[in-house]
Amino acid sequence: xxxxxxxxxxxxxxxxxxxxxxxxxxxxxxxxxxxxxxxxxxxxxxxxxxxxxxxxxxxxxxxxxxxxxxxxxxxxxxxxxxxxxxxxxxxxxxxxxxxxxxxxxxxxxxxxxxxxxxxxxxxxxxxxxxxxxxxxxx
Length: 138
Prior knowledge:
The chain is mostly beta strands and 138 residues long. The chain has one domain (5-121): glutathione-dependent formaldehyde- activating enzyme (gfa) (Alpha-Beta Complex), CATH 3.90.1590.10. The chain contains one helix and eleven strands; from the N terminus they run βββαββββββββ. Strands 6-7-8-9-4-3-10-11 form an eight-stranded mixed β-sheet. Strand 8 and strand 9 (94-98) form a beta hairpin. The longest helix is centred in the N-terminal third of the chain and has 7 residues, at 32-38. The N and C termini lie far apart (37 Å).
């Protein structure tokens, strides 16, 4: 593995990815959909161009219509159920890698927090992040 390749995968190792280069963005999503999908207060995410990501293993895709009209396509390992990445392979221009699936968690360097308007009252956003009430640019 070179320093410009980020790797990760599921709990059991059956679903893996390699992402080449640095992410286009990285942050925390505090929306209620991500909270429920992950079972945590927020989801750490990193965005990569689809052409920079190689995924191996079988994923179960769950597509969920969001309140703002977008659709979230979340991929879990078909064996262990771990949440690993977003976007349907071969159908999207970019993939979201979920930070909890990283082999080296130190590679995650969040810069933003999104959907803080939906943040659970018990969640504290780390200091220094640019915070957005909703999706930036929306």
